[in-house]
Amino acid sequence: MQYRPWRENDRLYTVYTENLGKQTLRAHGILRPKAKLTGVLEPFAEIELYGIPAKHFSKIGGAVIERRFSELRKSLERLNAAIFCCELLARLTKDNVPDRAIYQLLYSTLVWLNEQPPSRLITMSYTIKLIEYLGFGGGAS
User: Fold this and answer.
1) Could you read off the pLDDT of 4-35 as tens digits, one per residue?
2) What is the domain extent for residue 98?
3) Helix count (H) and strand count (E) of the chain?
């Protein structure tokens, strides 16, 4: 979902996984010129990550790209919508609370944004569904 610098050559990645929920993982040495994971750890991709438990943040030991959402980078409107969806998810969810429905919602929204013409209805629908999944929905009583 997002990343930030950590120490001299590392980054902390916040990701949302199907089985573990939101996780913060450390990519050791990712900013070095010959880092092997640099091309793999990119935003807006479905990535299979291999984590190594550590004291503070689990370390990313390996990664394989399953699917790139490459069309998102070709349109500012698509890119903004994808960023909005990921930011909202990062802000509203807690670490280590898995929810497959939320994972599938994010994944299907990114697929839709990647393959269909951009529309504000996509982000509005995503927002409403995410809020409902998190228990904030105002269901009819």
Assistant:
1) 989 999 999 999 999 999 999 999 999 998 89
2) 70-133
3) 3, 5
